[in-house]
Design a protein that fits this description.
Elements lengths: L1 E2 L10 H19 L7 E4 L4 H9 L4 H18 L7 E4 L4 H13 L3 E4 L2 E4 L15 H4 L16 E6 L16 E3 L1 H13 L3 E7 L3 H16 L5 E7 L2 E3 L2 E2 L10 H8 L1 H9 L7 E2 L2 H24 L14 H8 L4 H14 L7 H17 L2
Parallel strand pairs: 1-2, 1-8, 2-3, 8-9, 10-12
Antiparallel strand pairs: 4-5, 5-6, 6-7, 10-11
Length: 372
């Protein structure tokens, strides 16, 4: 499983947190079900946005990047995201990117233009399938306007850099420059997973052009289809109808949210809405979640105290059926949380026995899967 990680130009915000909690829960569920999950997340540390942010901060580029990379990993640990096996920085895959770009040129899927290299979308007949767009629709959504491109839907694989703006940059067959955004993820995933893997995730705003571009690059490079078996996209966290983002200036940093509300409350809040739906941030909703999760944890603790046996986590019993069905049907965490609350309340006055044992085993499993 691969999930698009952050561009390390600032601290994580709550919108990032919501996305990463979902994939953490997905990986936890798959692990509980017996799958071996190799979960990798990239770190975009080579990007014009990062270069510009470091310049505005008047800091050395690599010192700036290292600072926010460390902060990102610390925030993920504080959020209870424990399932990511490796964080891979894009800057560690430059040679793989150069190899893939050269191969795409040789195969007729890319072309050089004035020191830049572009992917020729017309060479790949499946472009637009993920986002369900035809070429006529894509032509109305050019990625970036440039006279260097044969078509405005073509996207950059490599950008040449002038000497005065070449920090950082790397040597290439086409001159000094930096990689395009899309090729970074393809280099990481093909290097680690090979030509095909199971799950790719990220926010739904990445479907086009980012994920469309990844598919086109990878399948043209390897000749294997499909590149990814399952694409799983999350909705956005909004504030006042706008996506929470640095560009909108409406950030609430994750570290501040954790400090104010605590990890259990934030995870519960993120899971209260289905992962594919947008969430409009409301502080009152978060405060309500604090009471709900505190009540559940208290009830769960009392259930464990009344079961005088060491039990293993389990969601296969009839008692756990609603919780299990909710999670295994498109990871419906709102329904799963609701079933867990009802079951915990119903079990408050139950006498020790088989039923309470099954409830206890579900509670133990829920703690593992939900990360509470």
């Amino acid at each position: 499983m691969f999930v698009c990680g952050p561009t390390v130009q600032d601290y994580l915000h709550l919108g990032h947190g919501r996305t990463y909690v979902f994939y953490d829960v997905l990986a936890r569920l798959l692990t509980h079900m017996g799958y071996k999950v190799n979960f990798i997340m990239n770190i975009t540390d080579v990007d014009d946005k990062v270069v510009e942010a470091a310049g505005r901060a008047n800091r050395d580029f690599w010192v700036f990047v290292d600072h926010y990379t460390r902060a990102f990993i610390q925030d993920m640990k504080a959020l209870g995201v424990t399932t990511v096996r490796r964080y891979e920085r894009a800057s560690g895959y430059i040679q793989e990117m150069l190899f893939q770009i050269s191969s795409l040129i040789e195969k007729g899927h890319a072309y050089v233009s004035e020191g830049d290299v572009y992917f020729d979308v017309s060479s790949y007949p499946y472009y637009g399938q993920l986002s369900k767009q035809g070429m006529s629709e894509l032509m109305l959504r050019p990625i970036e306007m440039s006279s260097k491109k044969r078509s405005q839907v073509d996207f950059a694989l490599w950008r040449s850099m002038p000497p005065e703006g070449c920090d950082p940059c790397w040597d290439s067959p086409w001159g000094k420059g930096r990689p395009g955004w899309h090729i970074e993820d393809t280099a990481i995933t093909v290097s680690n997973f090979g030509p095909q893997y199971d799950i790719h995730g990220g926010g739904y705003e990445l479907v086009y052009p980012h994920h469309e571009a990844e598919i086109a690059q990878a399948e043209s490079f390897t000749g294997v289809r499909p590149f990814v078996r399952y694409w799983v996209h999350t909705g956005m966290l909004t504030v006042g109808g706008k996506k929470m983002s640095k560009s909108e200036g409406n950030l609430i940093y994750l570290k501040d949210g954790l400090r104010k509300y605590g990890v259990n409350t934030l995870r519960w809040y993120f899971m209260k809405t289905h992962y594919r739906s947008d969430v409009s941030f409301d502080e009152k909703d978060v405060e309500l979640c604090a009471g709900e999760v505190e009540d559940l944890i208290s009830r769960a603790s009392k259930i464990r105290e009344r079961v005088h046996r060491r039990l293993k986590p389990d969601i296969t019993s009839e008692v756990a059926s609603r919780f299990r069905e909710a999670l295994t049907r498109d990871l419906d965490t709102p329904r799963a949380l609701a079933s867990l609350k009802r079951l915990a309340a119903d079990s408050s006055n139950r006498k020790p026995g088989l039923y309470l044992n099954q409830v206890c085993r579900l509670v133990l499993a829920a703690e593992e899967i939900l990360g509470l």
